[in-house]
């Protein structure tokens, strides 16, 4: 798929896609003879992983580290390397759970505030 389709399908801008490619979060894409970027289904899957990490406020550096670990885990790397990646990801899972819980508390507070506004407007 071309960059416009990838942007529309992912809900991200073409500029963001180019930036992620520049900093190495998504691989350099293939190009058509006319020079247009071409993305694969795997590129889309990776982008959606990035989008979900972004929701938990991971930095692009942290995203890169997480993606590298996921790549190792899903590769044919030696068992010891994959096992090490898995251990690191398990530890990072705890961090992701904590980040999600913090966001859930923020949503609860936002809902409480909305309730206050609604009550006072009635």
Give a written overview of the molecule.
By secondary structure, the chain is mainly α. It has a domain at 1-55: Multidrug-efflux Transporter Regulator, Chain: A, Domain 2 (Orthogonal Bundle), CATH 1.10.1660. Helix content is 73%, strand content 3%. The protein is built from 5 helices and 2 strands; from the N terminus they run ααββααα. The chain has helices at residues 3-10, 14-22, 41-55, 60-73, 79-121, and strands at 30-31, 37-38. It has a two-stranded antiparallel sheet with strand order 1-2. Strand 1 (30-31) and strand 2 form a beta hairpin. Helix 4 (60-73) crosses helix 5 (79-121). The chain is flat.
Descriptors:
single chain, 122 residues, mainly alpha, Multidrug-efflux Transporter Regulator, Chain: A, Domain 2, two-stranded antiparallel sheet, 5 helices, flat
Provide a quick synopsis of the model.
This protein is 73% helix and 3% strand. By secondary structure, it is mainly alpha-helical.
Q: What's the average pLDDT? A: 93
Strand order of the largest sheet: 1-2
Summing up helix and strand content along with how strands pair, one would put the structural category as: mainly alpha
Please name the CATH architecture of one domain.
Answer: Orthogonal Bundle
Q: Alpha-carbon distance between the termini?
A: 50 Å
Q: What is the CATH topology descriptor of one domain?
A: Multidrug-efflux Transporter Regulator, Chain: A, Domain 2
Helix content class: over 70%
Indicate the proportion of strand residues.
Answer: under 5%
Order of helices and strands: HHEEHHH
Low-confidence stretches: none
Number of helical elements: 5
Count of extended strands: 2
Structural Rg: 19 Å
Which CATH C-level class of one domain is it? Mainly Alpha
For the sheet with most strands, the description reads:
2 strands, antiparallel
What is the molecular shape? flat
